[in-house]
Give the backbone structure.
Amino acid sequence: MNFIGYQCSKCGVQYGAADVTYTCPEDGSNLDVRLDYAAIRASASVDSISSQREPSIWRYLPLLPVGDPGNQGTQLWAVGWTPLIRSGRLAEGLKLKAMWFKDDGRNPTASFKDRASAVVVARAVEIGAKTIITASTGNAGAALAGMAAAAGVPAVILAPSTAPEAKVAQLLIYGAQVILVDGNYDQAFDLSLEAAQEFDWYCRNTGYNPFTTEGKKTAAFEICEQLSPSGADRWEAPEAVFVSVGDGNIITGLHKGFKDLSELGWIDHIPRLYGIQSIGSAAVTNAFEAGAEEIQPVQSHTMADSISVDLPRDGLRALRAVRETEGAMIAVEDGAILEAIRTLGREAIFAEPAAAAAYAGLEAAVERGLVASDERIVVVITGSGLKDVPAAMRAAGEATVIEPTLKALRDVVS
Ligand SMILES: *Cc1c(COP(=O)(O)O)cnc(C)c1O
Ligand SMILES: [Zn+2]
């Protein structure tokens, strides 16, 4: 394994792999996982990875801070390697020559969060954790419940009682102990930290457990590998990547993934990263626009529940991801998110609101002249539209109902 320890994302202090579990003991900030790049270079290459057949995140095992997770053939091995879908008419409509959707709704529990949960579960098994807990707006919990079920580890999920029904159904069906909190995500988050300590459970929380970004970075690996011709000795990075931001952990993970590849010399540039929030939950965007280093909490309200966060738990690293790559944070109206759900459907992409927000952000970026027409652009679709059917129906409008006669049909189709 090429995992050598951690480095605090704020104070820069380094810790050994066995010294800490979650955050920096000095200042409570998020820890970056440190890898031994020389050892990775010695044991793996673009060619050794691309020539394997493993169609999951585990094809990147030499770049992950966990060992083989076992449980071969279970849903743990169905995470990732989601398709990169070429956009046709939507790209044309935006006057872009090369645009793709990374369709992460196609993961086992239908969201990007499976990447993080799979790696956290692998870590939990390695350290002998008996139970894993997480706070979640829904998807992280569903992903943990699913991956924990695949590995046979008990999971406890705390989610706001307002979480969309489909996500709660997943939690229950995957057999997790589900506790809905009469409060918001931020309150569930704080409670889960206390519970983890009280009951000695391993905590998956986003923007707290350092292994979530290590799972999420695999999407960056896949984007580059999938954009490259087979047999290439280097991978191709796109010019820009658009992804929605709640806690800021996905964009941080993508940034880590591109940095890993750049450090290894496997790509020649890091894409500009664009983080998209709802105007109703825009704490990171506010800090970006103010040029601030600190993030002020907001009182979030947006229909995009997966990115409805008062205090982003990984906001500083998210800010750094967009600043260091010369991307931007962009906030969009909920109305534009609903519209984006409908637009994406025209290319057979069915996105939940938080996922569609990334596309609404691309539309805004095109309007502001932030992307050039010949750039390669990837929009990450972070969750399936089936996660939130009422939102989809709001976007779609009502279907026409008729008498079962040809005359009635003729009347509506003409
Ligand atoms: C969790 C989630 C996000 C946001 O990820 P963060 O790490 O919280 O920024 C976006 N879209 C979907 C569908 C999600 O589940
Ligand atoms: Zn620190």
In short: The pocket of zinc ion (ligand 2) is lined by residues 8, 10-11, 13, 24, 26-27, 29 (CB under 6 Å). Residues 4 and 35 are 6 Å apart (CA to CA). The first helix runs from residue 37 to 43. The first strand starts at residue 3 and ends at 8.
